[in-house]
Every structure is written in C-alpha cells, then in structure tokens.
## 1
Amino acid sequence: MRSWLPVLRDRRRYIAFELEAEGRVSRGELVGEIRAAQSSLFGDLGAAKNRFRMISFDGRFGLIRCSHKRTEECRALLATVGSVAGTRAAIRVRGISGSIKAATEKYIPQSTLQPDENKRRVDLGPVSGSVARVIGREIDLCPDDRKMTEGSGTRYVGLTSFDLCGEDIDADGTSDGL
Amino acid sequence: MNFYECNLHALPDGSDSASRLALAAKRLGYSGIIITNHSTTGRPFGFEAARRVEGIEVVIGSEIVAKNPRTLHAKAASLREGSDFLAVHGGDEKINRAACEDPNVDLLAHPHDGRSGIGVAAAKAARDNQVAICLDLGPMIRLRGAARVRWMEAVRRDLDLIGKFDLNLMISTGARSHLDLRSPRDLVALAELLGLERRRAVEALALPKSILDLNRRSWASVGVELV
C-alpha cells in the first residue's frame, strides 16, 4: 500500500451485501451496473466522493468499499439497482462495518449452504446440520453451530456413512447409494 | 418501529403471490404489508395463504382505479365498508385532486406518475380530509436520465408542499414483485437524497400502522366511536 500521512488517511466503510437475482450475474456485470447507476444518480462529482470499490463478489454475497461519510448515499445507490445486464435483480445490504474482516465475519455467511435451507438433515446428538454433499461414503455436513469448524478453517464437518450407522440419512426416501 | 409497506401489488396485478411478497418483506425487516390490488382486477391471488406467514401482518386493501372524479367518489363510498385500507391510483391531475377531496380515501398512491403532482388546492384538501400522500420511490429505482430528472423535480416541489401543509406522508416502492421491494433503511436513504428529513421519512414508514389501527375501530359516524 502506498504510504500516506496517518492524519490524512481516508477512512473507509465496507458494505456487505447479498444479490437477489433471477439468473447468474458476473462480477464485471454487477460492477458496471453499479457504476452506471452511480454516475446517473450522483454525476461524476458525487461519484468521486463515494470512493466506491468492489472488493469481492462470489455470485451471491459481496463486499463494497466506500468513504465513511457516504454510507447512506451508497445504501441509496445500491437500492437503485433494479436489474443487472438485463436480469432482474435487487441488492440487499446486510450490514456495514469498518474493516473487511469484521464485515466478512459479521455479515457474510462463511458457508455457501444456509442451515435453514431445506436440505437433508442429520442429527447425531452433538453434531447436527444439513448435508452439503455426499461423495461415496464421505459426507460433508454444514453444521448448525458455526463454532464447530472454528480453528480448522473449513466450512463443513467431515463425516462418513459409518457415523450415521443406525440413523437413516435417507429416511426421507432420497437414497444416494450410500 | 413498526414499518409497513403500504402499496404492493400481488398477482394478477404484479408477478408474485401475496405470500411471496410477505416472506420477502419479512426478511427485509417490515412488520406488515398492505396489498392494494387495483379495484378493476379483483382480489390478490393466495391471500389466504399469506395470512399463514408468521411474523408479518398481511393486510388486504384496495387501490381504486377511476377514469373520472365521479366514479372515484362512488367506488370509494362502496369500498370503504369492509376494507381496512383504501388507496387511489393517482397520476392524473383531476384524479389526484378528487382523491384528496374524498375523506373515505386513506392514501393517494403514486401522484407523480403523470408529472402532475398534487398542487396547492389538492394539498389543502388532503390536509382537511386527512388523506395521506404516497412518496412512491419506484420511479427512482426504475428510471434513469431525463425521465428521472422530471420525476425528481415534481417530487421535490410536492415535498415542499407536504412540509408546508404538514400532510400525512407514506413511503412505498409500489412493488409488483419481490425484486422491487427495498428495506426500510434503503427507503429512508433514498428519501434523504430527495431532500426529506430522516425523522420525517421514518415517521412516514410507520404511519400506515396507525392509520390501520384507526380504521379498525368501529366508527358509528364521523367522530363517534362504538365502544
């Protein structure tokens, strides 16, 4: 990073958002759409004050950087996006934070699978969650309790079909050939 | 605060069922929605299912579509009984004025669609008859360029009028699908850009609840309540 006088360093806010869209949207398309909305709403002068940058976007959740004084303007800006590259979409702001780390940890779910999503459930006393995927006898489980994978840096809890012995993973009739 | 989205259109006006709108609004932080389908298209699809959605109140209102003031007054009088919330499909200058002059009406929806806005006479009438004016932010999301500039000019003028006469104000997106919905905080941020005070915007989002509570009490006649 370029060195800068600490007192003049620009302060930033990070907006964590979720994109709700009818189809797939790429990062480039989304950035283009937000930039177009920005210059339409604020003009070049106001757009420069926002200091808008797309930090990350994974197809659903994303992170935007903006100036700390312009968070409300950026919230309004994201609200004016109604479609991206011809696909109807809406941007839902999940939260605003002062650092990438805090914004990611607080507002962006670390697992791509939500516990409440209607997947097959596993309940084994201390371990409970939804099945993310099944490869042969190996099972990746998205735990209800996020703390379960803390320290290992993984999203999922690794199980095997032997762990589920007696408990029927396919009790709902959806067998995966386990 | 109890935020309500006061001017939604479900199937067949919009493209979502009432319950889908309810779920989306609940996730965005609303405590209730009012579905006001046009009086010409009938009841929204699946309104019984929407009542089963927990954690959000779903109110079925109505939005009167009328070609001239006379039919507007007739429809308002006949729909008032048995409906908790009555809106008027605004946009036309004469209809805007007539809606403001009708005490049966709760809300004048999207008065700025036809660039006309409300004007002084209608604003005075709205104050006397306690008709709320809806700031419909849908065009701000949908439109770009010159069309949005014209819309913003009309809105700015009317916001001054609303402040001057201290009219009741509601904020909505006039959503026809869950993708049109915006969270209360987004709407406040958008309204602030248009020059509305933050405090007024928050009040405007909470106003539908108090209007609904008033309408649900049983009034024998004007100012006389059955206890």
## 2
Amino acid sequence: MASTSNCRQDSERIVITGVGLTAPNGNTPAEFRRALLEGVSGVRDYSIRYVGDTFAGLCDYDALRHQKRKEVRVGTRAGSIAIYCAHEALSDAGLSVGESLEPSRTGVFIGLTEHGNVETENEIHELGKYDYQTRYWSHYHNPRTVANNPAGEVTVNLGLTGPHFTVGAACAAGNLGLVTGAQQLLLGEVDVALCGGVSESPRTFGIFAAFASQNALAHGGEASRASRPFDRSRNGIVISEGGAVYVLERLDRARRRGARILGELAGWCYNSDGTDFVLPNSERQAECMSSALRRAGLRPEDVDIVNTHATGTPAGDVKECDALRSVFGGGCPHTYFNNTKSYIGHCMGAAAALELAGNLAAFEDRVVHPTINVEELDPACALPNLVLNEPREVDGVEVILNNSFGMVGINCVLIVRKFR
Amino acid sequence: MSREDIFAALLEIVSEIAPDEDWSTLGRDESLRGKLESMDFLDVVMELRKRYGVEVPESDYGKLGTLTSCVDYLEPKLKDR
C-alpha cells in the first residue's frame, strides 16, 4: 500500500494514544463499540419548549465523576461533556496532569457546530419571568457563551496552561478539531493535544425549529428508527448531544513513554463549497476526499472503511453518495461504507470525532459496523459494499476514511490508518 | 420575615450557589469568603433580587461578610415579607 507515513520522521507523525467519549448509546469507547455492533440505538423521544415532541440523542454520562456540583451549575453542557471526555481520554492514554503531563505543553482544541444558543435561550426564557428586565440577566452569560467556552472549561477543570480554543466548523467540526490538534503538534506549540468535538445542541430549541422549518427534522414513527440515512423513507435529522476527545501525540514522544497507539493520522483535507448556505456540493466533497487520500499517499482502493457523513436528509445523503461514487467508483472491492448517525442521530460538532471513535476498534476486531434502519435502500444511495443492518467481518482493516460536511459549505475529511 | 427565617433563607441560597461546601459547620459570625468566591456573591445578590425583590447596591456588598451581618442588613428590608 502506497503511503508517505513511513517516510516521515517520528516527530512528524501524529498518533492517537487515548480516546474519551460520551455518546447517546455509550459512555466509553468499549460501550459505544458494543452498541454499534449490537445495533443499539441511542435515539429517544424528547420534548423541548416551543417545539414540543420530537426525537433526540441524549447522553447519560456521570458529570460528577470529574466535576464538582458547582462546576456543573456554573458551566455549560458542552463544557461538561468536554471535561468528561478529556478526563477519560487522558486516563485511556495513561496520562495524568502534573505527573506524565506537563500543563503548559498541553493544548485543548474542541470542534463545535455552534455555541451560545443554549445559554442565550435559557437566559431569555428566565428573563421572561421578570418582565424582561435585564437586571435579572446572569453575570455568567458571558463566560458561558464566549466561543472558547468548552475548551476553556477543560483547562480550568484540569489546570492546563497551554493553548486552548474551539474550532467552529459546523458539522465538520469533529474532524477539524482533530486536524487542528495534529497541526498544533506539528507546529511544536504543544506536546499533547486534547482534541475532538462536542455537542450540546439538543438543549437549544432553535436548532430543532430551524431544521423543521427547512423540512429537514426527522419526524414520525419510532424513536429508534427516526435516524435512517440511505433508507428510502428517511425524512430528516435527529439532533443529538455527545463528545469525543482524543489524546494526540507526536510519534517520538509516544514511543518514548511506551504509549499504546490506537491509530495514526495519515492525512486530511478541509475545503469550502463556495456555493450555498445549506445545500452540499458533491464536487467539493469529492475533491476533499481525493485530496486527503493524495496527502496520505493512498489510493481509493487502499481504504477499508468509509464512515459516511449522511444525516438522513433526502437531498444530502444523495449528494454524498454521488461524491463517493466519483472517488471510489473505479474499482475498490475491499472498501466498505457505513454510517453511525443511524444509531445516535447527528451529534453535530461531536459527530465526526465520535463516528471515528466508533470505527477505530475495527483495526483490531476487523468488523465493519453496519448502517442500521435501512428497510428499503434508496436506489440513489446504493453503493457497492454499503454495510446494511448487520456487521460485516472483513479480512483486515488498515485505513479508515472519515467524512464530515457542514453548513455554509465546509468539508473536512480525515484518514486514519492502523499503526505500523 | 424573622431573623431566623432570614438565616434559613440565606442558607438555602448559599447551599444552592456553592453545593459542594458543608454549610452545616459554618458559624454565623464566620466569614463567607472561605466558601464563596466573588462570582458567588453576585449570585447571592441576584437570588435576593429574584426571590425577595431586594436590591443590594455594590457599595453595600461589604455588609454581606457573614451570615449575621447579612441578616442585620436584610432584616429591615424584609420585615414586611
């Protein structure tokens, strides 16, 4: 398999040494993976003010495992999710602050689809009880809604003093958070990057109402079947919360400390459609995938798993399938396609990071988790080796390509390979 | 409200604002600074405004140093509630 990875110096290779996550169907990588292989949905009935009954993917991680009650009260849900995931990732990597982790050389880079909507809506709702007199507006509004909040909360909780910021990238944010972490490592800004993405989106009515107004919110039927990308009867997105934070390190450091290596970031690309606020652009998506492959020194046929971005909207899924056909349509008999949103809905800023985490175990167990909830495949979404409803055992998994696309035309593709 | 009612109301407020602290051991003349940070005091002021309609101007924040001083300050403002 052609690759540039092994030509690079260890100091130029970025590896994953830990993962912490909370998903609507699991609070550890192992729980999440088990749910994906057993077909367990995390989507449930949900109700939110003004919108009423709908569906959502919600997490049940124990916030008090890593936060004091006051931190939970004062902070944001996105911050709490990021803190939980960061602690779990460090533990997974065998790192602890002040011992094996130098606080000033550790950075936090968290992808977000949006931030501040939940907190602003809550304050306005509260203000309504007091005739909208602004002297009742919380002094916590600003620290809760500054755009760096979730990453900043991680540094406050852990006492980290290296750089932190969030990466606003719509629904490509989970991948771009990881890419940013890798870039900060390559620039030498940090020695350890805590990076990925989080979502608190089910707590803002606005996102539900906006998708409903766009005729793009999943509706009707059973909660567990509400998110069904590629199914002919799909009717929209399920809004979900969650988070996935990775520990990334340069390979030389990881080797020195004898770290367990879960995978290597082989290549990536991010680009812009430059065409529309909402509608995706197949050509730019395909260019993003092709460029990521080229940078990784890989050919399409070298990819074993493509985790699709598809969200369950009638138009968006077809656009991505068009892009996939243009990249992988030339003979890739060992490339399998799956989708994780069919289990957990759309975890927004966390989506790509979580979905990658759900597939990483395939390097070891050689199983491609399926796309569930496809009763009748939409012919416009038909792809060779689209893994439907049942897990697929394969000969080996060396390369995973993870797609993520977002509104206002932002695309980010990340390729991770098994560490050799 | 009686002085005891105000003590009880204050303890309820600070217990919600700083839920990790053990408020049962706090002496009434002991400084609240050991358990409340500056942003927490703003929360106390906000809760007094929301729950009892009491306005505490910034120039009076120094009078909220202990439970007893808080009650001394609030008693005339809450006597008719």
